[in-house]
Design goal:
The protein has 374 residues and is mainly α. The chain has 17 helices and no strands.
Length: 374
């Protein structure tokens, strides 16, 4: 399932969709992406080599959600049984019945499910289904935006759809990105908008804290730093170091986390480990909402990283400059999505203002449509 064909919910005939599984419908393959320089924060997470256009490894979605690869997660869950699982799934040898029972117990699955996981591939993802699960979740959020954000609102002067503004918006950006790069960033941000709406509808207690998304994107501090300040506020702490010391998340023998390490996490120089972040919000009210806000902050952080790694010119643009672009685009996508839903519900009353990255209103080319977007 790692090389899935692309199906567009907006353009694929219903008769064709009926032939597909739900996983196939929701999973949206990524287009090739070329970095101009290495990622600063997420490093090799996308599995890309600068200067080479390649489809990002979907494992990056697992890393965004869990802070580790799926193999690292399985190794932590299975401990000494991990190697037995690897040998079984890759067809290295036939395990004993005792080993099979131990693996079933450790994974919490029955014999038929375990047998279905065996693929015999020597390379590639150890458990593709694990990665596919992350792809389905991302695809669900992306398709929520794509479908509910697909309303058409024609510009009186050019007759273009002012809500399908991706090319026009990024074309006016102070940082110049190629279409593959800004398409990838747009997709990350659309997933955040889609997830926020869907969680608010289906699981309100897990929706990011009200107003937190715009705060997380605010370029005055890195998104992870903004999240850490949000946690500090929720805890009632005056100082950032208190969120570490109070929870005792330092290494054995340490008192909390060294100030220098906290500062690097806050500024986005190093990526805050998910395990540390989880301990920071342990026992806090609205823990599920804070966790969702953390995932949004990680999405913003990756978007900023990609902007810095793909912007035209010599060297990296500053973090603040890249984050300003991401913040502005996110707010525009929020506005577009809100207006699209209002149009579908018959509530729209005014002509929308589609604002370019440079702050001016956009005139879109005739025939612009959401079908052109990723």
């Amino acid at each position: 399932m790692e090389n899935l064909p692309a199906f567009d919910l907006l353009t694929t005939p219903f008769g064709e969709l009926k032939k597909l599984t739900l996983v196939q419908i929701l999973t949206v393959p990524f287009a090739p992406l070329m970095l101009l320089r290495p990622l600063k924060l997420f490093k090799s997470t996308l599995g890309l080599t600068p200067g080479v256009a390649t489809v990002p490894d979907p494992e990056f979605l697992v890393v965004l959600l869990e802070g580790m690869t799926h193999q690292e997660a399985l190794r932590g869950q299975l401990n000494i049984q991990f190697k037995n699982l690897e040998n079984l799934l890759r067809g290295a040898h036939v395990p004993t019945n005792t080993t099979l029972r131990l693996l079933q117990a450790a994974l919490g699955i029955d014999a038929d499910v375990l047998a279905a996981l065996v693929h015999g591939n020597k390379n590639g993802h150890l458990m593709p289904q694990y990665v596919n699960g992350a792809q389905v979740m991302e695809g669900l959020f992306f398709n929520v935006f794509k479908v509910l954000g697909s309303a058409v609102h024609s510009c009186p002067s050019c007759q273009g759809n002012v809500l399908a503004d991706m090319d026009a918006w990024w074309g006016s950006s102070p940082l110049r990105l190629a279409p593959d790069a800004y398409g990838f960033v747009d997709r990350l941000l659309k997933c955040v908008v889609g997830a926020d709406w869907l969680l608010g509808y289906a699981k309100p207690e897990a929706r990011p804290l009200k107003g937190s998304l715009v705060i997380l994107a605010d370029p005055r501090n890195h998104p992870i730093g903004q999240w850490m300040d949000l946690v500090r506020f929720m805890r009632g702490d005056k100082h950032l170091w208190q969120i570490a010391i109070d929870d005792g998340i330092g290494q054995a023998g340490e008192v909390g986390v060294p100030a220098g390490r906290l500062a690097k996490w806050k500024s986005g120089q190093d990526l805050l480990p998910m395990a540390k972040a989880s301990l920071m919000i342990k026992d806090l009210p609205k823990q599920a909402a804070l966790h969702s806000s953390l995932l949004a902050a990680r999405m913003f952080a990756l978007a900023i990283d990609v902007v810095r790694a793909t912007a035209a010119g010599e060297g990296y643009p500053t973090r603040a400059a890249a984050q300003q672009i991401v913040a502005d685009r996110f707010k525009q996508l929020q506005a577009n999505f809100k207006l699209s839903i209002e149009i579908f519900s018959g509530m729209a009353q005014s002509q929308p203002a589609v604002v370019a990255a440079n702050g001016s209103k956009l005139a879109l080319p005739p025939g612009s449509s959401s079908a052109k977007e990723l």
